[in-house]
């Protein structure tokens, strides 16, 4: 199966067709694309051996090219509650900073997090665990983070970055802690504050790389990128949805923003090649995030398919 690298391409729309032709030639994929005035911003994936050619095209088009593993991930930015007396102010800045580097972020405020008695309800836990990584933004007090708020991250089944004011606290694996950014009353615009946002981004990058390395030991039966392309081609109306990311790529699947009851059967029957349909290689269920469809691609160890099917698909990929 092809190994992809993820890039954020920012450049003018002039001669952008050269980038489009390059992606078509090498089997690259556009994850997301949008325009801001005369600038084109493209999240893309290319085979790892084509990195040098992409760099040459970016220089020719005078574009900014950034390698970022955040592309193709969905990140939950979690705060104990949304009340004005408790919401840590950096939450929106953290979410926006990760979004600028290609991540799809969702801010989630808990319903029972006020004071020192906060915790996760079963529904909140399931909602958060639909994401690839969580960033849990907490406050300034070491006692509160270590003794009262531990349930907000110890119970999570996905890797998380814990953000708080104390310089360092102990958090269990696979979680990481970034200190020095607790509750503040202004936007993060200063140089040292931007550096702290970059530190959070690097911690998220580290966790994402670990997940992708683990997938190499037990690879997914298909690449979620290719599943996304097949859904685009066979259910084109998904791109007409008003959501900014109607097809959200994840580390192990997709979030498809179509009504579950109306569209789930079509999603299940999406053809990957002449031998495979999506329902044969993925768990497809209703999300806790609105009335959407969640596709979780299964690893090879959990799928029993004829060798011919797997071989044909790998050739296709």
What are the salient characteristics of this protein?
single chain; 317 residues; alpha/beta; Alpha-Beta Plaits; Rossmann fold; 3 domains; five-stranded parallel sheet; four-stranded antiparallel sheet; globular
Class by alpha and beta content: alpha/beta
**Which percent range fits the helix content?**
25-40%
Please indicate the count of domains. 3
Radius of gyration using CA atoms only: 20 Å
CATH topology name of the largest domain: Rossmann fold
The appropriate CATH architecture of the largest domain is 3-Layer(aba) Sandwich
Quote the distance from N terminus to C terminus: 6 Å
Order of helices and strands: EHEEHEEHEHEHHEEHHEEHHEEH
Q: Major sheet: order of its strands?
A: 6-5-7-8-9
The poorly predicted ranges are 311-317
Describe, in plain words, how this protein is organized in 3D.
The chain folds into three domains: 4-67, Alpha-Beta Plaits (2-Layer Sandwich), CATH 3.30.70; 74-214, 3-Layer(aba) Sandwich (Rossmann fold); 224-316, no CATH class. The protein has helices at 17-26, 51-60, 91-100, 122-128, 142-148, 151-154, 191-217, 224-234, 260-268, 278-281, 307-316, and strands at 4-12, 29-36, 39-47, 64-67, 74-79, 104-109, 133-137, 160-163, 176-178, 247-250, 253-256, 282-286, 293-297. A five-stranded parallel β-sheet has the order 6-5-7-8-9, covered by helices on one side. Strands 2-3-1-4 form a four-stranded antiparallel β-sheet, covered by helices on one side. A four-stranded antiparallel β-sheet has the order 10-11-13-12. The chain is built from eleven helices and 13 strands. The longest helix has 27 residues, at 191-217. Helices cover 34% and strands 23% of the residues. The N and C termini lie close together (6 Å). It is an alpha/beta fold. Helix 3 (91-100) links the parallel strand 5 (74-79) and strand 6 (104-109).
